[in-house]
Amino acid sequence: MANLWGIPNEVEKLVIKRDIKCVYCGIEFSHEKIPRKNKASWEHIINDIRLNREDNVALCCISCNASKGAKLIKEWFKSDYCKRKNISLETVSLVVRNVVLK
Predict the structure, then answer these.
(1) For 45, how many CA atoms within 13 A lie in the half-sphere containing its CB?
(2) H-type helices in 27-72, by residue range?
(3) Residue 41 pairs with which residues in a beta bridge?
(4) Are residues 92 and 23 in contact, defined by beta-carbon separation less than 8 angstroms?
(5) Which residues have CB under 8 Å from 34's CB, separation 6+?
(6) 1 exposed, middle or buried (CB, 10 Å; 0-12, 13-18, 19+)?
(7) How far is the C-alpha of 102 from the C-alpha of 17, rounded, in Å?
(8) 55 and 99 Cβ atoms separated by less than 8 Å
């Protein structure tokens, strides 16, 4: 059985265990009610909801997810948001780097 995003249960469990902080900016996820922007959200690194493997599904903060939106990752890295937060291929988590370098 999969969740609302079609992510298989085994992938969801693996990702929750692997991604304990945002795969983009590295902020630790907040379990408090505020600030909401620091809460974990599901992310498809390649914006294709059909790609639900652990190499494309990750957890990132709501702030990064909102900024990235439907942008291609390489284009998003050029955004003012990424420049401000010092997010680049060199600073993101290994799961993101592996997708970008494929």
Answers:
(1) 25
(2) 62-68
(3) 60
(4) yes
(5) none
(6) exposed
(7) 24
(8) yes
Q: Specify the pTM.
A: 0.90
Written as one letter, the residue type at 67 is S
Return the ∠ at Cα 31 (arms to 29 and 33), rounded to 5°. Answer: 120
Element (H, E) at 58: strand 57-61
- What are the φ/ψ torsions at residue 59 (nearest 5 degrees)? -110, 130
For residue 7, the SS3 value is coil
Mean pLDDT by 10 residues, the chain (102 residues): 75 94 93 77 90 93 95 95 97 95 86
Place of tokens 């948001």: 81
